[in-house]
Amino acid sequence: MKYHLVTLGCQMNQSDSERVKRVLEGMGAQWTDDENDANIIGILACSVRQKAIDKVYSKIANWNKRKASQNLITFISGCILPADKKKFLKLFDIVFAMRELPQFPQMMSQYGITTPVGLEKDNLNPKEEMSFFWQVKPKYNSSFEAFIPIQNGCDKFCSFCAVPYTRGREVSRPSQEIIDEVKSLVEKGYKSITLLGQNVNSYGLDKKGNELSFSQLLEEIGKIGNESSQTFWVYFTSPHPRDMGRDVVEVIAKYDCLAKQIHLPIQSGDDKVLIKMNRKHSVKKYRETVSAIWELIPQATLFTDIIVGFSGETEEQFQNTRKALKEFEYNMAYIAMYSKRPGAASYSWPDDVDLKVKKERLALLSEDLAEVAGSYNRNMLGNVYSVLVRDTDRKGGYLSSQTEGKITVRFASEDQSLIGQIVNVKITSASNFSVEGELVEVSELVE
Questions:
Q1: To 10 degrees, what angle do helices 283-296 and 246-254 make?
Q2: pTM score
Q3: CB 222 within 8 A of CB 251
Q4: Which terminus of the chain is more exposed, N or C, with fewer CB under 10 A?
Q5: Contacts for 176-185: CB closer than 8 Å, 24+ residues apart
Q6: Of 432, 374, 435, which Cα lies nearest the Cα of 402?
Q7: Measuring CA to CA, which residue among 431, 331, 423 is closest to residue 381?
Q8: What is the per-residue pLDDT across 202-250, written as a single tens digit (0 to 9) for each?
Q9: Which class for 278: exposed (0-12), middle (13-18), buried (19 or more C-beta within 10 A)?
C-alpha cells in the first residue's frame, strides 16, 4: 500500500503534513513520490487563496478519473471553509478536520467505495481534539530544519481573512510538550526550528494563569540554547503587532539561539485601512514595536506581509503603505493583491480597486522593496556571516544558504555534505534579494 500527499498553503500545513505522514506510515503505508503509483492519495488544502482551491478541484478531477481503472482512496484535510467542505464531501472519499487526524485509521477501516466519510462533531470538543492531534509524533521532512506548532486557530477576525473559519478559535499547545520537542530536536542536531501558529504571540492567552506567556515560552527555549553545545536558531511566525510586546523583544535580545529575524505583518501603512481590516493596531503602535526591535536588536532583519488593493483603498492610502515600507526598511515583504475569500467579513464588500490598479500598486511596492532590501544587502559586502546551507543552488556548482536573518546567500561549492551545516561565508557581491560569497575556513577566521 503506497500513499502520496499534496500539501498546499502555509508552513502550518507543511507541519501538519508531517503528522499525517506519521499516521499513514503507522498504518503500514509507504510514501511514493509519484502520485500515479499511490493507492491512497490526499491533499492538505488552503481555502485562504482561490488559486489553491482551484488546484484542489483540478487534482480531484484527475484522481476520480483514475478510479475507473484502479483502486484508489482519496482524502482531504487542512484549512477548509464550511462551504468548500460541503462540496468536497461529494468529491473525496474521506474529508476530515486536521484535529480529527488521530481518528483517521478508524475512518480508513470504515471506508466504503460508494459512501464518502466526513466526521461530524463527536464527544470531544475542539480543544480536546487538538490535544490528541499534537500527541501524534511528526515525521519530519528535513534532517536539519523543523516546524513546531505551538497553537492553532485565531481570535483576531481580520476582515480579509478566513483562518478563524477554517481552523477555529485559538488553542494553545501545552508548553511542556513544546519545550520537550525543542530539546529533542536540538539533541538530534537540528539547526533551524520554527515555532508555528496563526498568531504565535497570543500563545497562552486562552489559558491565562495556567500557561506560560509567549515571552516566557521563548525564555525557556532560550535556556535550552544556553545549556546546549549545539548552534541552532529558533524562529517564529507569525506574530500580530497588537500582541507583540517589548517583553518578547527583550527575550530575543537576551538569548543567542533565538534568531534575530522577525516577521511582523503590517498589511497596510494607513490607519483607516487597518481599521477596515480589523487589524486592531495602528501604524503608531507598529512603529513603537519596530523601534524597540531596532533599539534592542539592531542587527535584526525585518519581514512583513502587505495587501494592496483592499476594498476601498485610495491612492493616498496606498502611498501611505509605500511610506511605511520605506520607513521600516524591510528585508522582505510578501505582497499580495487583495482577493475576496468566502467566509471572511470583507467577502460581502465591494472589490472596487481595479485589477490593473492592483497590479500597478504591487509593482510599485515591489520596486520599493527591492531598493530598501538591496541597500541592506550591499552593506553586507566584505563581511563574514554564519549561514545554514539548505540545498544546491540553481546556479550550477553553487550551494544555497541563509543567514540567521534569512538573507539568501549562494557560494561556490559542490560539497553536498555541507547541506544541513552552519558554515562561514564572506560576502563578495550583492543583488536586491540575495548575496553571493565565498566559503571561509575556520582557520582563516582565527587569523
A1: 20
A2: 0.85
A3: yes
A4: C
A5: 177/134, 177/135, 178/148, 178/150, 178/217, 178/221, 179/217, 179/220, 179/221, 179/224, 181/148, 182/148, 182/221, 182/224, 182/234, 183/224, 185/146, 185/148, 185/232
A6: 435
A7: 431
A8: 999 888 889 999 999 999 999 999 999 999 999 999 889 998 999 999 9
A9: middle
